[in-house]
Write a sequence for this structure.
């Protein structure tokens, strides 16, 4: 878990750097591209728009799936938002990604906050 904590600290630091530079109010897609640049600058492995296959009783369900905004170091799922307020549905979305992808830890980051620290939620599967 210590390694996951270190990754999340770096991701949150990257998000704070992006938020400081860009401020609130932009589209989620803009923050995602900025996060990719920031994570690359930190030397962190990451993938964007990562497809997640849904299975039922071991059988893949065709044409049904999700896309994670970011997967960092193949370990931490990062779901980005730029909304007025985070809702339970956003938390459930991240938890679903964690369960379906068999990942342990995720970050929900809402860039549409005056102070980003108020828009970061850690979710453990």
């Amino acid at each position: 878990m210590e390694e996951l904590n270190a990754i999340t600290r770096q991701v949150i630091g990257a998000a704070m750097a992006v938020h400081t530079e860009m401020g609130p109010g932009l589209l989620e897609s803009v923050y995602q591209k900025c996060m990719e640049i920031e994570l690359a600058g930190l030397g962190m492995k990451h993938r964007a728009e990562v497809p997640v296959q849904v299975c039922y009783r071991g059988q893949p369900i065709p044409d049904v799936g999700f896309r994670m905004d970011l997967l960092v170091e193949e370990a931490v799922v990062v779901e980005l938002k730029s909304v007025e307020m985070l809702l339970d549905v956003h938390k459930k979305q991240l938890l679903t990604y964690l369960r379906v992808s068999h990942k342990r830890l995720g970050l929900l980051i809402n860039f549409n906050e005056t102070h980003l620290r108020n828009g970061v939620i850690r979710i453990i599967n």
